[in-house]
Write a structure and sequence with these properties.
The chain contains 5 helices and 2 strands, in the order αααββαα. By secondary structure, the protein is mainly alpha-helical. It has a two-stranded antiparallel ribbon with strand order 1-2.
Length: 128
């Protein structure tokens, strides 16, 4: 079963919230390879979104290799979704990177706000 919670107050568009939540559920193993997802119409009705919004999220997940669309048969989690790291491994790697950054920030005499601003700027650059 797909559990999606959209935040109508978020600046993140609904299709992106949906895309990210499905991808995370696949990565966490809550949605398993071969599992069928709700139809576009079913999910649109459940979430009170347009069919186009759901279709866009599904299309982007198909392009990423996370889902496969099989026409009238439906949309399924791919047999081998390209998940680079398990959730635990991902958390461990982020924690290690944060520890290294924190040590450098402290050695430079940075306060918390300055360090957080540097992280936010680096994340922005990495995503663009």
């Amino acid at each position: 079963m797909v559990t999606i919670r959209l935040d109508s107050n978020s600046r993140i568009p609904p299709f992106e919230q949906l895309r990210a939540q499905i991808a995370l559920q696949v990565a966490a193993g809550r949605l398993r390879p071969g599992q069928r997802l709700p139809t576009i119409r079913q999910l649109a009705a459940q979430l009170d979104l347009s069919n186009g919004t759901i279709a866009r999220a599904y299309r982007e997940l198909e392009y990423a290799g996370i889902l496969t669309g099989e026409g009238r048969r439906g949309t399924f989690v791919a047999d081998s979704p390209p998940i680079a790291y398990s959730v635990v491994e991902r958390r461990n790697r982020l924690s290690e990177a944060a520890s290294v950054f924190a040590e450098v920030a402290v050695s430079l005499g940075s306060d918390d706000n300055e360090a957080l601003e540097a992280i936010a700027a680096a994340l922005g650059e990495a995503r663009s």
